[in-house]
């Protein structure tokens, strides 16, 4: 179950609650098989730190080479020999809450627009071009798996504005 579901998520199209994960549709829970879905901004180093393990342990468990990188949406098997699932989920949630809190201290969502994903483009590239973090883009497009959208998909893009100091 996602943080959004457990917090009775708000629809970000109606209201963006600052300093909160309530509108976040990401699943930060550990699955029954001990794996997680990798979310935006997460690296193998983060999981290594949260689990008090060396990255080499996670690479071996997941059959990853030293050059392999995690991508949003990947499944990652975890080793809970030093930290339990609840501790991992708590650390992970705190990490994402800080990212979102820091963002909303500096920016506000002022409006949205709908754009079609163009041929040869990607969600990551669109997020970069629109200066929107992937996690925020995901909040506004909960009906799509952003790892599997195709050309022509109409995405809602939040327009952000820097807050005055």
H and E order: HEHHEHEHHE
Rg is: 17 Å
- Global structural class: alpha+beta
Low-pLDDT runs: 1-20
Q: Please, what is the average pLDDT?
A: 87
Write up this protein.
The chain has 165 residues and is α+β, with helices and mostly antiparallel strands. The protein has six helices and four strands. The chain has helices at 3-6, 44-51, 55-61, 85-106, 123-130, 134-139, and strands at 35-37, 75-77, 107-116, 154-162. The strands form two sheets. It has a two-stranded antiparallel ribbon. A two-stranded antiparallel sheet has the order 3-4. The protein is globular. The termini are far apart. 21% of the residues are buried. The model is unreliable at 1-20 (pLDDT under 50).
Topology at a glance:
Layout: H1 3-6, E1 35-37, H2 44-51, H3 55-61, E2 75-77, H4 85-106, E3 107-116, H5 123-130, H6 134-139, E4 154-162
Antiparallel strand pairs: 1-2, 3-4
Q: What key phrases describe this protein's structure?
A:
single chain; 165 residues; alpha+beta; two-stranded antiparallel ribbon; 6 helices; 15% strand; globular
Quick recap of the structure?
The protein has 165 residues and is an alpha+beta fold. The protein has helices spanning 3-6, 44-51, 55-61, 85-106, 123-130, 134-139, and strands spanning 35-37, 75-77, 107-116, 154-162. It is 33% helix and 15% strand.
